[in-house]
């Protein structure tokens, strides 16, 4: 069995992806969440973590004089747990280049679109307004380009005729909860890595759209 992979999860809100990661820590999965850090004291994900016996920390970004100061303190808090992987799960902060470089190759994010489509916010509305036939979510390595790092895995689903934003959002959430634990487990098992050429799975360079799952 692979050695334990220590994971720190960063959150800002309800933590539904965090819950999916917690639920995935079954026997045989080397990924172990050793801490959850939030930038909001009212983030419900903190309660999820505490219920699972996972240590939590709150670092209020508003208490710091600028982004660099906050990220420097955040790195210190993360590094105290000596993580092998840092996972962004609804962490609503744009990270500084210094932070991203510090965790290069061991920093994952999930984004609610089929990257490179719809970087940034309001992805479900944008997909519906564009009349897209399919939509989905992507797990990617974080680089200095916002939502621009190499994609590890994508889940795509057909957009239903007349579908509401709420309905599409819910279905994409379900897909997120499937692919994020999978990507984290692949990393923990040593199967998923970031190389100069892009994301690698089982020693092979993945296509730009990553490993594909259709739902």
TrEMBL record:
One Pfam family per UniProt: Formyl_trans_N
Binding site for (6R)-10-formyltetrahydrofolate: 67, 92-95, 109
Keyword field: Purine biosynthesis, Transferase
Pathway note: Purine metabolism; IMP biosynthesis via de novo pathway; N(2)-formyl-N(1)-(5-phospho-D-ribosyl)glycinamide from N(1)-(5-phospho-D-ribosyl)glycinamide (10-formyl THF route): step 1/1
Site (Raises pKa of active site His): 147
GO molecular function terms listed in the Swiss-Prot or TrEMBL record: phosphoribosylglycinamide formyltransferase activity
Domain of life: Bacteria
Binding site for N(1)-(5-phospho-beta-D-ribosyl)glycinamide: 15-17
Catalytic activity of the protein: N(1)-(5-phospho-beta-D-ribosyl)glycinamide + (6R)-10-formyltetrahydrofolate = N(2)-formyl-N(1)-(5-phospho-beta-D-ribosyl)glycinamide + (6S)-5,6,7,8-tetrahydrofolate + H(+)
Domain Formyl transferase N-terminal: 6-184
Homology family: Belongs to the GART family.
Function in brief: Catalyzes the transfer of a formyl group from 10-formyltetrahydrofolate to 5-phospho-ribosyl-glycinamide (GAR), producing 5-phospho-ribosyl-N-formylglycinamide (FGAR) and tetrahydrofolate.
UniProt name for this protein: Phosphoribosylglycinamide formyltransferase
């Amino acid at each position: 069995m692979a050695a334990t992979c220590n994971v720190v999860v960063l959150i800002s809100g309800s933590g539904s992806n965090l819950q999916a990661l917690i639920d995935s820590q079954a026997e045989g999965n080397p990924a172990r969440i050793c801490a959850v850090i939030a930038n909001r004291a009212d983030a419900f994900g903190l309660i999820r973590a505490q219920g699972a016996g996972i240590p939590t920390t709150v670092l209020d970004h508003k208490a710091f004089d600028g982004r660099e100061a906050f990220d420097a303190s955040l790195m210190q808090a993360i590094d105290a747990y000596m993580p092998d992987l840092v996972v962004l799960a609804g962490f609503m902060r744009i990270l500084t280049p210094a932070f991203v470089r510090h965790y290069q190759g061991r920093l994952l994010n999930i984004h609610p679109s089929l990257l490179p489509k719809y970087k940034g916010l309001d992805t479900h509305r944008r997909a519906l307004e564009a009349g897209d036939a399919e939509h989905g979510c992507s797990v990617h390595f974080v680089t200095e380009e916002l939502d621009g790092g190499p994609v590890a895995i994508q889940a795509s689903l057909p957009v239903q005729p007349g579908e509401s934003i709420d309905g599409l959002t819910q279905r994409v959430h379900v897909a997120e909860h499937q692919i994020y634990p999978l990507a984290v487990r692949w990393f923990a098992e040593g199967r998923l890595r970031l190389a100069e050429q892009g994301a690698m799975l089982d020693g092979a360079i993945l296509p730009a759209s990553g490993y594909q799952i259709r739902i």
